[in-house]
Amino acid sequence: MVVLATAGAGYLYYEHLNGNIEKGQRSSGDSKARRAAPNAAGQTPLNILLIGSDSRNSDENVELGGARKDRGTPPRGDVQMLIHLAADRESASVVSIPRDTRVDIPKCTDPKSGRTYPPVNTIINASLARGGAGCTLATWENLTGVYIDHWMTIDFAGVVKMADAIGGVEVCVEQNVWDRPLPGVPGGSGLKLKAGRTKVQGEQALQWLRTRHAWGSDPLRARAQHMYMNSMIRTLKSQNVFTDTGRLTDLAEAATKSLHVSEEIGTVKKLYDLGAQLKTVPTDRITMTTLPTAADPEDANHLIPAGTDADRVWEMLRDDVPFDGKGGKPGAKKAEKDEKASRDPAAADGEIGVLVQNATRSGTLGPVSGRAGAITQSLVGKGFTKATADTSGALAEERTVVRYPSAELAGDAQRVAKSLGIPRSSVRRSTDVSGVTVVVGADWRTGTAYPKQPAPKAGDLPGDADALNGSDAGKCMNVYAPYRW
Questions:
Q1: Half-sphere exposure of 431 (CA within 13 A, CB side)
Q2: What range defines the domain where residue 370 resides?
Q3: CATH number at residue 382
Q4: CA 78, CA 301: separation in Å to the nearest integer?
Q5: 291, 95 in Cβ contact below 8 A?
Q6: Of 440, 455, 476, at which residue does a domain stop?
Q7: Which of 88, 185, 224, 327 is most open to solvent, judged by the fewest CB atoms within 10 Å of its CB?
Q8: Is 258 in the same domain as 350?
């Protein structure tokens, strides 16, 4: 009877936790990202988008976040981090994008209201209000070329609940800090700490994560957030929460009430399994970074991804290359086998219909005019006399791909790719096209032969990615002089 009663109580509590979880649609925007090819062991990377919402749509959030005038307005995604768990589960990489970074947001449809938002080029934190977290996910997928498995969002009140459940996280500042309004500079998180190390929790933890002015910039706010997350991970590992039933229960209660997640991970079991995968990564194999950015020439208050440095970060994620330099060969480097050689022979070159699209526009660079026409002429010169250029306008793809709609055209697509020097790994089956389609991406802006792409190496991050190792407990934030006391 005791066993049955305990089991029954456990089941009821499990159902209670499941009832706490709010779920939403994984993607609500136009995206063509595809899952990465498995490595030799059949493993694939896991990508999770973490979004911090500035929602003021509850009394609790208004109390914590101020700005009562924003009550009822759509929330923005002021904190956005992509967590990449390597295919071999031996390392993890995290990339933050500052909230004021201007990017292409695709067409999105809000799954709750049914409202459709047209594509727009604006700062990335606006994506959350244009179709929910699923729109932010689609924005990231189009920007990076990385397939994102899940998203999680958390608001001000959720951060406070989680911080209290954890029991405090140690942070460090080099000088006394007070993030407060100054003449001509309104706002401020209210964070006030003395120099040195302090354990923050509850509202003070939220203040740390929201502080921007006292650090001097939004990218530096991302650094402070990375310090907090690394410290939190070290704290949780030291608490052995997966074997301590009491601690696990407290965290489960807080997490299920605080997190809003994509529907495919919307149960306690799936969230637990996800946590079990993440906990296997040693802290010294966790690398936190911020996307390299440059000043936006159109608006001094905004940023744009920093060209080749930003592209290198995305390429390392796409190819599952460890950020920390401690890994060997990339875990998913079987990309060349992504599309097996077709058993169906290609038709004669002159019989293959090919559509060429210009997708050279990226988040940092405008489109190169005439690219579809130039590649079409090259194909015609090689004997593909049915090649035509798409004149409907410039698209945006980070990498060049050749798409085809059905198995009987696989051989034709591979033949076209080979003639242009495009690797077989970039030949993809897709229901978005009606025939063999060459999509000329931002990585092929000049010439008629696809440029060979050097494979990124482990640890080959650009210097301005501001990498921070998860085991480094000695970092402290420098305080911008006006906010010292």
A1: 1
A2: 339-440
A3: 3.30.70
A4: 15
A5: yes
A6: 440
A7: 185
A8: no
